[in-house]
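Forwarding the complex inputs:
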Amino acid sequence: METHKPEDSIFELLTTYNELNSSRIEELDEEPSPLEFMRYVARNTPFVVRRGAEDWTATRTWNAGVLRSTLAGHRVNVAVTPFGNADAPTPDGQGHTIFAKPHEEDQDFGQFLEYLIRQEILGSVGSGQESSKVGEVRYAQTQNDNLRHEYVTLFSQVEKSIAFARIALERDPDAINLWIGNSRSVTALHRDNYENIYVQIAGRKHFVLLPPLFQPCVNEQDLKPATYVRAGGEGEEGLVLRMDETVEENGDGAPKVPFATWDPDAPKVRATPYSHLAEPMRVSLEPGDMLYLPAMW
Amino acid sequence: METHKPEDSIFELLTTYNELNSSRIEELDEEPSPLEFMRYVARNTPFVVRRGAEDWTATRTWNAGVLRSTLAGHRVNVAVTPFGNADAPTPDGQGHTIFAKPHEEDQDFGQFLEYLIRQEILGSVGSGQESSKVGEVRYAQTQNDNLRHEYVTLFSQVEKSIAFARIALERDPDAINLWIGNSRSVTALHRDNYENIYVQIAGRKHFVLLPPLFQPCVNEQDLKPATYVRAGGEGEEGLVLRMDETVEENGDGAPKVPFATWDPDAPKVRATPYSHLAEPMRVSLEPGDMLYLPAMW
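Prediction (whole assembly, two chains):
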């Protein structure tokens, strides 16, 4: 535990916030009205609607077989990394932290899904040495409104928009994205300047949420970007990081990426003097659950 | 104009805010719905509803005669200062700025109103030396829910609550206050941690509003508090500031008051390096106009 001077206003701010706010997420049993939703937006506070999307066609019907047949013959964009570290701060092996971007490639959807399932089975039975052989991590995680483009054949099976949010915010969704991964799919601590409604269709996802106020805890740094490329064949040993090429005249390399380098799940690593004050809100979503993730959380 | 280093993030923040936001207040023609209001709360943005309260009994009927007869014989709390500087940063004559609190006294309502009117007439015809003889400033400005207490006989003539705000915020008003003054009544730049709906019943009021972000412009300082006392008879020459007595064991005097010392209407005085970046939102209210003044503005 650090010691702080009495006049450390950031320390005071964060500890006061913790005293006044619970790190338990608010749980609703049904979708809020637009006005109720707007109260959460005004307070910049997340909530989860348990089973709020349980009646969606997608929630009721999607499984591996349905997806496989619906998307048979489709090719989809897949992010490939050795450790699930797509768009994540990553040690470069020489004492620095860099921003690792995934290798992206189009894969046949059926083969992609097969890989996810086999890896999941292999990973759950393997241990020790074996688990290090589970291979590269593949995650369909584009954020370019893919459910109205790449996966448009599935779009009719979800709600076109979330009514309470559309009415409250007076706009249709900017983007609707579908993400498909397995238990190795990870997204690094980050923030978006968007109000997000996340719906769990199948499987489970575990969120770790920090309020914007806890910015002093996350150790944001300007990281040099690098991208994984396939050096050999498939498998994590075949992926190597290559620094992004310079696009600037000063020859300093590609523009650096400001990014949180602290991980609430490895709280001793790359910590700031304030990191230990962070009390993340943790929430696990089950199929049909709906999460409001406020902008900048 | 100050020069700023390129890495001055406060400078960047304030200039970017100015680029992205208008300093013109949004004007509505009718009261918003609770949901529409909540959008303003979420954006922490003021608006004015022109003539939103024009149908109130108070707006339609109040004038000096009505108030005089309704409150005949009542005594009301009046804040008395030489310059309208009630709860305001004030030079102490020895190079320091102190926090001046008004002399408070109960006055017969009829005599109080008569004083306001006579001073207004005198002030509007006087000039130069004459105008310095207009005398002390009197302002009925208590904030202790006075319309449901001190002025309860008038309460039936205003709305018991502002429906759009009550429904949106899910609570009745914490306080409903009536303020009565003349053109010499001034309130120093300050902020409250309350959502406020201000309704102009009679006369005009000129607001100068700054967003919370512009905190670096206002030169907040810890000021020693002092209170006006009547040393002689009536008139500004009779009011002197007396430092508040110590209530602390360390003998340093009464606890200091953190308060903005910069005045947007005297922008060169007590300025910070950021004060010139402030682009205050100015709005004048006419009878029946309604202003949403967000918390912390």
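Chain B touches chain A through ten residues (CB under 8 Å).
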